[in-house]
Amino acid sequence: xxxxxxxxxxxxxxxxxxxxxxxxxxxxxxxxxxxxxxxxxxxxxxxxxxxxxxxxxxxxxxxxxxxxxxxxxxxxxxxxxxxxxxxxxxxxxxxxxxxxxxxxxxxxxxxxxxxxxxxxxxxxxxxxxxxxxxxxxxxxxxxxxxxxxxxxxxxxxxxxxxxxxxxxxxxxxxxxxxxxxxxxxxxxxxxx
Length: 192
Prior knowledge:
There is one protein chain. The two termini are 69 Å apart. This protein has two domains: 7-101, Rna Polymerase Sigma Factor, Chain: A (Orthogonal Bundle), CATH 1.10.1740; 130-189, Arc Repressor Mutant, subunit A, CATH 1.10.10. The protein is built from seven helices and no strands. The relative contact order is 0.07. By secondary structure, the chain is mainly α. The mean pLDDT is 81.
């Protein structure tokens, strides 16, 4: 843009809602003051697109403050716009840092949870190896595979669903007694 526009002309145009002059003013502000903001963002973990979005947000905030009468000429527009942009970018960096910390904590808790599950699975496998194969498979089919009593009755050739329930109960009691015999506690199956 060839012609320099003064800070006071820009403020008056916004206050009086001179739309044609406002558009020229915004283009002028962008062409004159965007590069220092872009350099700041690039030096502080940002990219060119983020700098562009940030500067546009700063222009909107500036425009709204002038319209509401909240802008008080305490510095040049260049300094004022850079200050708005800088504060917006610092806020964004804090938001990212906080999001990253939460993500990191979630990742760590997921890792801890996975270790607990693996430990419990190893303990369950250890105890399951102590019961006979048919009982082990029956308990796996019912508790882990979610098979119905009817399908278990057919699979194991038992006379009725009642007989299957009794067999499952006896297998479970055998497993419980083996757990007690191994001196395993409930805490062996979870993290306390």
